């Protein structure tokens, strides 16, 4: 059983790393500074480049989905932490009917606090039609919802999504970035099953560890254990195959995926080229190791053939 | 009205007006402008607006008040305005014996006579938009308080001006405020959009009454935020960035905003037919103003009950929004109807 506090702390880590990379110029995100304080920590270029690849690839997939549905869709980010995609997309005119972010209350209450303070964040949520409604740890706007729930508790997840007035017949994408690995595999199964049983058309984008059975994986698990953070979901991260099977076993029509090594190669070359000049990296070995231990897997359920199966990174 | 301390100052301000009016594409009739020199010896001024010289005067009428070059109020003139206002209201029952309830007299005096005396209140001439019906609709001398505005009823078909629906609704309310179903009963021939629109206007007007009552005990120190149940705060949308206004400010700002929207030429250019695209706005106004009821109910219960006993306003509103699907049931958290309590526990809007 992972200590939940240690798991929540992984979000601060992720947000700090993103802010650091943004300030180095890896990608643009005027909103991340409104959600995190600057930290003293420096991060290795490998880390920033890893985040760069992940952020670019996840955004590309999400954007393809929103385009395909012409915005008549919903986005549910599970374990969203301090993710800023809603604001970034909205400021670029990319909109979905609803954007839901879900995390532990300790995380959402911090986010709530920052949103209340951050005019730019509030302004994006404001709409003519609907007043913004705020509690200690939750926010409801016209197209933005921040809710607290424990993803291991499917009843709570269901109740909180109901509060967001989601339309279960609308194409909906579920996102998990480095989240499921912290959750017991059985509980994840329940969650994945619940989605396919309740939503007509759905896409899942999952970014997390892969090939965790080698030496590198062992070291990573050991490191996290020392921070009191175990990975009860790591069994699904044994291989790309194992990652896909967890979806096809829970009612998803099909799944596909790539290791980050290949994803990095598929990113727009000009931008990758620009990024590679930002910071000096004396050897690529560590970066290659990192990339081969993370992957993105996407799974879909598309009975109405709206084309979810054709979404990929090429 | 422009005030300036020097000729140069005045000239600068006039240039600002010229550029603003150009930007906003409004036209100003230069000929209708006049200058009044206050407490200064008259001297030749050379001020122009759109290349027309502005003429100098000894007295100027602004918003109906005469201002003189000594800037002393024309007391005689104003008292006579006040008296005239008073007389014109007598026809409506504003007099001692046999007149309306003294409390109402006082309110009329305060709302109509005093402002006209102090600053004319040009917009408050006691005339209705349609002169002919105004005669019909006036209260007769000696009307008792409880008879105030209980005019003889006219059927909807007989009202042919643009304010017909509004008058029809007000007539029904005046007849029996407890007959909620009757008040909401849509007469044949009335467009549903117009019917909903006019009722909502009426609700907003009457909600001002509740908001005035609320002021007595709902203040920014005690109700620092707009809440109904403890959990949720509602941000006030009347600002550039949504703001955590105190409940009483939220109430005022929201009612002002609603009035503004309902009177806007953009969304509601006509009161005879309502644009399909604007009907959606009505639901959003409903959800906003409903929070005034729910705040009053959960935080000022005695006051709410008193007001509700008199007016049945929340009950009428609840039935109205349900009947026309303007709000979802789970947002209706004030248990005002008999069959409504069931949902109280689980709702949170
Ligand atoms: C490594 S962070 C990633 C945050 C974010 N997805 C990102 O990519 O920046 C993992 C997040 O998952 C959340 N999380 C983990 N287990 C959870 C659970 N059982 N219920 C809700 N949130 C959970 C944590 O609170 C944390 O915010
Ligand atoms: Zn109050
Ligand atoms: Zn306000």
Bound molecules: S-adenosylmethionine, zinc ion
- The rounded distance between the terminal residues' Cα atoms of chain A is 38 Å
Uncertain runs of chain A are none
Shape of chain A: globular
Beta-strand level of the residues of chain B, as a percent range? 5-15%
Helix vs. strand class of chain B = mainly alpha
Determine the fraction of residues in helical runs of chain A and give it as a percent range.
40-55%
Widest beta sheet: strand line-up of chain B: 1-4
Give a verbal description of the structure.
The complex is a heterodimer of chains A (314) and B (349). Chain A is α/β, with parallel strands linked by helices and 314 residues long. Chain A has a single domain, classed as Vaccinia Virus protein VP39 (Rossmann fold), CATH 3.40.50. Chain A has helices at residues 4-24, 32-35, 45-68, 85-91, 105-117, 119-125, 154-163, 185-198, 215-226, 240-248, 260-266, 269-276, 285-291; strands spanning 74-78, 98-103, 133-134, 139-140, 144-148, 172-177, 202-209, 254-259, 294-301. Chain A has a 9-stranded mixed sheet with strand order 3-4-5-2-1-6-7-9-8, with helices on both faces. Chain B has 349 residues and is mainly α. Chain B is built from 11 helices and 8 strands. In chain B, strands 1-4 form a two-stranded parallel ribbon. A two-stranded antiparallel ribbon of chain B has the order 2-3. The model of chain B is unreliable at 121-152 and 342-349 (pLDDT under 50). The structure holds S-adenosylmethionine and zinc ion (ZN) (2 copies).
């Amino acid at each position: 059983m992972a200590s939940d506090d240690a798991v929540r702390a992984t979000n601060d880590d992720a947000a700090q790393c993103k802010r650091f990379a943004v300030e180095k110029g890896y990608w643009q995100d005027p909103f991340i500074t409104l959600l995190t304080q600057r930290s003293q920590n420096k991060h290795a270029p490998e880390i920033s480049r890893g985040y760069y690849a992940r952020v670019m690839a996840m955004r590309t997939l999400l954007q393809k989905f929103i385009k395909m549905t012409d915005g008549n869709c919903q986005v549910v980010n599970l374990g969203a932490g301090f993710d800023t995609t809603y604001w970034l997309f909205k400021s670029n005119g990319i909109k979905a009917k609803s954007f839901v972010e879900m995390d532990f209350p300790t995380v959402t209450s911090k986010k709530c606090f920052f949103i209340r303070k951050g005019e730019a964040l509030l302004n994006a949520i404001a709409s003519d039609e609907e007043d913004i409604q705020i509690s200690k740890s939750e926010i409801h706007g016209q197209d933005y919802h921040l809710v607290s729930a424990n993803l291991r508790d499917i009843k709570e997840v269901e109740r909180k999504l109901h509060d967001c007035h989601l339309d279960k017949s609308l194409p909906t994408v579920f996102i998990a970035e480095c989240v499921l690995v912290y959750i017991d595999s059985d509980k994840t199964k329940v969650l994945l099953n619940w989605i396919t049983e309740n939503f007509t058309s759905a896409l899942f984008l999952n970014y997390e560890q892969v090939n965790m059975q080698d030496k590198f994986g062992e070291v990573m698990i050991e490191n996290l254990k020392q921070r009191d953070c175990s990975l009860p979901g790591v069994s699904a991260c044994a291989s790309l195959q194992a990652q896909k099977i967890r979806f096809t076993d829970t009612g998803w029509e099909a799944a596909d995926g790539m290791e980050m090594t290949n994803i990095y190669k598929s990113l727009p070359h000009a931008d990758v080229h620009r990024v590679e000049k930002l910071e000096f990296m004396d050897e690529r070995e560590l970066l290659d190791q990192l990339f081969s231990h993370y992957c993105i897997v996407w799974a879909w359920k598309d009975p109405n053939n709206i084309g979810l199966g054709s979404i990929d990174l090429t | 009205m422009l005030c300036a301390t020097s000729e140069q100052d005045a000239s600068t301000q006039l240039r600002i007006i010229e550029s603003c009016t150009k930007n906003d594409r409004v036209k100003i009739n230069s000929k209708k402008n006049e200058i009044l020199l206050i407490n200064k010896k008259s001297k030749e001024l050379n001020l122009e607006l759109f290349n027309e010289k502005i003429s100098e005067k000894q007295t100027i009428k602004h918003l109906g008040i005469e201002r003189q070059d000594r800037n002393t109020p024309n007391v005689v003139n104003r008292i006579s305005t006040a008296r005239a206002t008073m007389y014109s209201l007598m026809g409506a029952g504003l007099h001692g014996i046999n007149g309306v309830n003294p409390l109402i007299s006082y309110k009329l005096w305060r709302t109509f006579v005093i402002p006209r005396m102090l600053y004319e209140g040009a917009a408050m001439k006691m005339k209705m938009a349609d002169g002919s019906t105004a005669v019909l609709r006036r209260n007769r001398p000696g009307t008792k308080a409880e008879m105030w505005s209980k005019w003889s009823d006219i059927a909807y078909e007989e009202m042919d001006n643009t304010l017909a629906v509004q008058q029809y609704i007000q007539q029904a309310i005046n007849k029996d405020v407890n007959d909620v179903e009757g008040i909401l009963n849509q007469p044949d021939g009335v467009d549903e959009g117009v019917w909903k629109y006019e009722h909502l206007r009426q609700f907003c007007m009457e909600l001002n009454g509740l908001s005035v009552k609320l002021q007595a005990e709902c203040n920014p120190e005690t109700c620092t935020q707009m809440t109904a149940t403890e959990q949720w705060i509602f941000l006030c949308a009347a600002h550039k960035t949504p703001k955590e206004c105190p409940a009483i400010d939220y109430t005022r700002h929201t009612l002002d905003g609603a009035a503004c929207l309902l009177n806007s030429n953009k969304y509601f250019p006509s009161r005879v037919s309502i644009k399909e695209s604007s009907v959606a706005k009505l639901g959003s106004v409903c959800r906003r103003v409903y929070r005034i009821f729910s705040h009053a109910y959960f935080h000022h219960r005695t006051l709410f009950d008193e007001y509700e006993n008199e007016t049945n306003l929340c009950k009428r509103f609840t039935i109205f929004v349900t009947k026309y699907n303007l709000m979802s049931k789970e947002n209706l958290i004030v248990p005002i109807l008999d069959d409504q309590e069931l949902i109280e526990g689980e709702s949170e809007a």
